[in-house]
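Supplementary Methods, section 5.1.

A reviewer requested that the exact input to the structure prediction be made available. We therefore reproduce it here, unchanged from the version used in the analyses.
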Amino acid sequence: MKYISIPNIKDYQHYKEGRKIIWIKLYLSILNSFKIQQLSDREKWLYISLLLRSALDDNRIALNDTYIRHNCSIKSRQNITKSIKKMARLKLINIKSDSKLIANRYQADSKLIEQKEREKEIDIEKEKEILKKEKNKLLNKFKI
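The structure derived from this sequence is encoded token-by-token as follows.
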């Protein structure tokens, strides 16, 4: 699976490794950056969102439009793929492949499937219990 990483993410991080990141540094020099000036206003917001998301995702943001749109709070219909490619060309971000990321996503999906199966089993048991109670009510009603 492909993912996005920010090449100089350590420049934006205040804390050393091991601490939960709750904020990032954003330098004023970003306003004068030639690379940033090449981005549209929407792309600039996407880039800032990717910086924030990168801090949360250990600098491994899944390269998936839906994931990025949802987790970076992008509501507009901008073409995220096109913007990502542009940022990669400008070397603001890196696009990498990682089989470990695939394994982690697969494991998370497996856990979700197991949880849904358990929920179905619980629902079936509850349904059986309800049917049993209704059956007993009917039997008691007709015994009189």
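The radius of gyration is 25 Å. These observations are discussed further in the main text.
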